Model the fold of this input.
Amino acid sequence: MAFFVLMLLPIVLGGPWRRSLRVLVPSWRFFEDIEPGHELWIYQDQSWQPPPPVANNLFLNPEGLLELACRDLVHTFLTDLEYRDTADLSDWPSYQLLQNLTRQRGGSQFKLTSHGQDFFLSGTC
Done:
């Protein structure tokens, strides 16, 4: 059976089926245009501190998991900014969690940047 499939394969792929079957093969170009995401900066020691670099560890990586959780929290907050009324900002759970994270890291304020431009500055935590 496999012999007949191998014999028919060049015939099928050489004809008009080739363009049709190409749709079923992925292109694997997922990450060509990666743009930098939003960054959370924390104000501590009278200066803005970027997020600390994360050490990569294959098996146990609590710092990496915390960084992923922070990025998800920033994304959740940005979604809230887009779809909610900003009058009650301090009541949002995502804003409160960002303030708690800022305090935990020893900061008094946080800001969000994108492409090197500040676009959100929090109040004092």
User: Anything to note?
Assistant: The chain has four helices and four strands. The two ends are 71 Å apart (CA to CA).
